[in-house]
């Protein structure tokens, strides 16, 4: 219709889009609220009762004054706005979230104010501001119906003198909490006072709501306008103009203030001022942050802020809708420059409680009923939930999440700002006397029954901080407050401003100062973020096409540049959707106009750089206070706010008479009239005489300036304060399935692709920003849940893919390909987020919640059933043996059973873990490390009867196809090795099994000596463990050793059969199943091989057998192990004339060994692994130097006795000692003399060690000690110069080639830059 189009043509520039009236429809009469019935149906379904019987019929046990009746949108003006189609169901539900409420003259009828918002699919928001008041019911039919309902209620409950509590209590009316306080003590109270109704003597009142719907959150201005509209209805004399004039004025003649300007428009009685921040200022935030801090306290609020940043599930809980909205808007405001990307419903209507099932991050507000015990509130999932009880000033936090960096200093700075404004930093503490009095009155619940004087105090104190002392004085002197009314809310304050305006200015200044402190933290933490943004795409279209495959941010490099204390928080935060969106916006700013929040943030970083030139590498974890606030606490923005109020930039035209029919809308005190819709559905046209007022030269000039500054809001919907830069209005119409508006010719840009991408590709689990409020049938609820199932599956695919890509990237580096791009911290973050995802999947569609962890609860049910079955099988004569896994190694090691139950028992025996959430996470980590996560979960879900009992039909775990895909994605994680259990639970006791495997063909299978073993890992060693003679296998418990590195194996050489040829030692962690093989291939015994009675063996993780699950066979590259017989070049009695490496190969081996050690020290400390492997492993430094020393060595057997390199070292040292005694070395240079002494000292210490290590073991020890103490390059020239070399080495030996030796010294010199530390197992018993 033409009127609509005319009305909405300039909608994006208008202050308000709609004026709405909600209340009772006298034509349809009293209708039970369908939403209440649906809520009862859902609640019964949740609790496992028959939902149909629960919702059938009316609830006559409950007084009709307590019951919920259907409200309707009685009128809304205009009919429709192109930019913001009117959603009648949503607006009705949010204006009156709990339907109509009835009162009598004996009840409280104080007006209430609350706000709400509707978030569209594209992230844009519409705000609603609601003034609810009570109006007398004049319809005889409704009074009669209420009388009848009350009589039926009395007949059902003849003994009820007071209203009974309701089973659907959470659906009570908006202010029901007020009259559910202590009932009158007098037993002879009138029926009305006790919740009764008698039409002959009681006056019936019903709630009605006036609502303004606006594109921006001008909360204070809307509140004042609506309050004046209500005042005009209740005043003794009619308002100056018909109410239509004021509604028409605010809908069509009051524009949005331009950015950086203030605007004055007129209400019914007083002018109203609002202002909008400039382009470089923090975005508009009109909800008072001071109130949020007062309600929660600084510490709680910072914790809530942290949970929001980490995208947890957040549930706000309060009796007061406006408190829910204030806290929700406050916390999202503080996220600047980031934005909440998930479900955001600050006021969740009672009929949408099933939405708490959502297995995605959300921020929702739930209205509590007075007296409701928190413990009785059944929430579907709590493992990742932050529960905020606003009224009781407390929060319940999830387990195990990183703290915000510099939290104590941050809290201290915020507290100082609050104290400057007289607000206590402790939540719930009395901030100032006026606020305390106000809160006492609010919380009392009986303020409707207060005497006139106390109510007057309440009205006087609201929004008036300057009357604190006056109030105290009035109390002392007995002055009645009515006498002070002239000084009240609209009295003069400073600079000609009213006291209400003073309070608003004070709130605005406090808002800015608190937000500046938060913004300053992000400016400090992300000062250099731009350097790590990866901008590889040539144009926007190719970037959008390949978005999911591309890395947009160099996370590993960014984290390596941060202070150590910040890492736990930052590694989690950079994985969130809000951070990903922020980086996406940064990349898109190359081709599109910068997103407003990003523009402001980048401007702040540039400004900070001017004042504080800091190299990125010189980061400090010292707390940097907010530099924007000056000594007084003022900032440029607070001064700008005050300046805009002192000098109003724009004044809207005054309300004026409209062309109306005479006699309609006649004034009647106490009743809001029916407005004339024909004058309100059309905006001013060009031939309207009032439009001439808008065409003044000043307005033309202002409009021109706005256009040149690109600040107008035209068809391209650039919402300067909004959440998304959306340059294509089609978005709204695709979502609402309405016909699109006429569009300008499209610009040549990729906005449409951009919009589609933002709505789809970038959203993980973000399928619903806000539930669709129009249709709430069970079918729609099922459709909603189906979207959740799809979202969860997509999130699982993305997470497993990310984990694989990052892990494989790291392993490629270890193999010498590419650069490292992950740290252990980041890996731990990814695993923690996988644990969160599994908890959310197991929480989706639960029938009845048990415990805080849905996954652990399911496992316990499974365990109980399986143990019952096991017991039955044990009692029956024929018993199927338990499923067994194949042995990790075909030799010697008994098989280890793969069992969900067994792994649960391991976790249950860990006393360190106290909660169900902790046990579930430990179980996930253990299963992932054992490469059994997918197999275990498949086994768990194979018990379909149990799954059906625990989960509703729409649950993720009962969607067969999606469940199979989910398990397949988890199976892909078996291709890489994780040590996520071993590395996290470092203090637990673990059973280990050790098996010694001799070479039976060439040695005695039995020995008369007493063998012992000592197992060492990255976290410690087991100590010496004696093995029973000829058993060769043992099990022992000790504290977690981490990844195993070495085994010391030896015996006491007792008895006749003491010589022992050992093939290898196998050691298995009996919890994780990791089996390590420690190859030996050498003799232990006197007079055989090199005479060693003990050896240090280097381990490798053993491969599972090929016939195991295919996924379990894929794994990371092997670690090096201890040198075996085959690698030795020395010719022992066993060895043949084996392969001899060339000089070039030997030099290359030394280079590789040294290079590996250098790489080791360039990794982050927590990532380095074992240095012992690099020193003594198969391709380690010791082995490479042995090859060097063996080259050209005269190892001819004299009387069948093998000559070892250690023999050469001993002879060289003996020569040096004898030369020193004879005085031949007196003439040598002093440093050389000292070096000679040190070599003799080390060799002597090794020889005199109580350990029975052989000659090769002694040479290994000498090399390790020389590398540690930086002496190797000093010892080499001594050995080369010693005359003994000519007798023991051939002319062509590498050791006799000066050039080669000098090259070796140069290579070894590079090790001096690193602090080499040796494992205790290597240097045990050496006294230097």
TrEMBL record:
<dbReference type="Pfam" id="PF01477">
    <property type="entry name" value="PLAT"/>
</dbReference>
<dbReference type="Pfam" id="PF03456">
    <property type="entry name" value="uDENN"/>
</dbReference>
<dbReference type="InterPro" id="IPR036392">
    <property type="entry name" value="PLAT/LH2_dom_sf"/>
</dbReference>
<dbReference type="InterPro" id="IPR047278">
    <property type="entry name" value="DEN5A/B"/>
</dbReference>
<dbReference type="Pfam" id="PF02141">
    <property type="entry name" value="DENN"/>
</dbReference>
<keyword id="KW-0344">Guanine-nucleotide releasing factor</keyword>
<dbReference type="InterPro" id="IPR043153">
    <property type="entry name" value="DENN_C"/>
</dbReference>
<dbReference type="GO" id="GO:0016020">
    <property type="term" value="C:membrane"/>
</dbReference>
<feature type="region of interest" description="Disordered">
    <location>
        <begin position="683"/>
        <end position="708"/>
    </location>
</feature>
<feature type="region of interest" description="Disordered">
    <location>
        <begin position="1115"/>
        <end position="1138"/>
    </location>
</feature>
<feature type="domain" description="RUN">
    <location>
        <begin position="825"/>
        <end position="986"/>
    </location>
</feature>
<dbReference type="InterPro" id="IPR037516">
    <property type="entry name" value="Tripartite_DENN"/>
</dbReference>
<feature type="compositionally biased region" description="Polar residues">
    <location>
        <begin position="683"/>
        <end position="697"/>
    </location>
</feature>
<dbReference type="InterPro" id="IPR001194">
    <property type="entry name" value="cDENN_dom"/>
</dbReference>
<dbReference type="InterPro" id="IPR005113">
    <property type="entry name" value="uDENN_dom"/>
</dbReference>
<dbReference type="InterPro" id="IPR005112">
    <property type="entry name" value="dDENN_dom"/>
</dbReference>
<feature type="region of interest" description="Disordered">
    <location>
        <begin position="870"/>
        <end position="891"/>
    </location>
</feature>
<feature type="domain" description="UDENN">
    <location>
        <begin position="53"/>
        <end position="593"/>
    </location>
</feature>
<dbReference type="InterPro" id="IPR004012">
    <property type="entry name" value="Run_dom"/>
</dbReference>
<dbReference type="InterPro" id="IPR047277">
    <property type="entry name" value="PLAT_RAB6IP1"/>
</dbReference>
<dbReference type="Pfam" id="PF02759">
    <property type="entry name" value="RUN"/>
</dbReference>
<dbReference type="GO" id="GO:0031267">
    <property type="term" value="F:small GTPase binding"/>
</dbReference>
<dbReference type="InterPro" id="IPR037213">
    <property type="entry name" value="Run_dom_sf"/>
</dbReference>
<dbReference type="Pfam" id="PF03455">
    <property type="entry name" value="dDENN"/>
</dbReference>
<keyword id="KW-0472">Membrane</keyword>
<dbReference type="GO" id="GO:0005085">
    <property type="term" value="F:guanyl-nucleotide exchange factor activity"/>
</dbReference>
<feature type="compositionally biased region" description="Polar residues">
    <location>
        <begin position="1122"/>
        <end position="1133"/>
    </location>
</feature>
<feature type="domain" description="RUN">
    <location>
        <begin position="1172"/>
        <end position="1323"/>
    </location>
</feature>
<feature type="region of interest" description="Disordered">
    <location>
        <begin position="154"/>
        <end position="189"/>
    </location>
</feature>
<protein>
    <submittedName>
        <fullName>DENN/MADD domain containing 5B</fullName>
    </submittedName>
</protein>
<comment type="similarity">
    <text>Belongs to the RAB6IP1 family.</text>
</comment>
<keyword id="KW-0677">Repeat</keyword>
<feature type="compositionally biased region" description="Low complexity">
    <location>
        <begin position="158"/>
        <end position="189"/>
    </location>
</feature>
<feature type="domain" description="PLAT">
    <location>
        <begin position="990"/>
        <end position="1098"/>
    </location>
</feature>
<dbReference type="InterPro" id="IPR001024">
    <property type="entry name" value="PLAT/LH2_dom"/>
</dbReference>
